[in-house]
Amino acid sequence: MSWLTDFIKKWLKSALGRDGEPERKQKSAIIRLIVLTMIGVALLLGNRMIAAPQNAAQTNGSPVFSSKDSQKLSDIKSGNGNNSAGSIANYEDYVNQNLKNILEQIQGVSEVSVMVTFSSTEKNIYQNNIKTQDNQTVENDQKGGTRQVNERSQDSQVVMVDKNGVKEPVVIGKEQPTVRGVIVVASGADQPAIRAEIMDAVATVMDIQTYQVKVLQKNE
Fold this sequence. Notes:
The protein is an alpha+beta fold. It has helices spanning 2-15, 24-60, 67-78, 88-103, 192-206; strands spanning 110-118, 123-126, 128-140, 146-158, 160-163, 166-169, 171-175, 179-187, 213-217.
């Protein structure tokens, strides 16, 4: 703003007469300049006042989870984290710990305890050799008409390999246990908005309904 003040002073000085009184023809120009200057200052201040609430709104409306957090949520469900899930007991501990870690990153949430219950155990997915056979037959009825009958049959067998004289099935993947429900106890869960965020996050990552998630305030 200092450059604008200096410019006005120089312009006024050049516009004044010898006795310091503005000339008639220059008086209206000086008034217009002052009015335009005041309008410019008002617009500048107005833009700053508008920009501040917009920045605050963007901050308040930012998502709870970043893209990196979302990837961590996916890792919990798929088991793609650094630690191997292993047996069902290890898998439960793995899910509980990772879910606890990600929930504690939510603003306003701390001291999280998580318990995930499963309704089934981990299952192996075996490679199958599927053979499909299609049969077509033409039948004649008593009235001289014909009709075509299509039949399809499938035969599926698990692929076996010989390991040291013992035949074993080929495992191509594992089906993770089905989640029955989740209980979350955390500080900050007494706030309805935070409790809703926790329920939505857990339901999303575990692929369950929100009614299967119970969120409780931690006893202080």
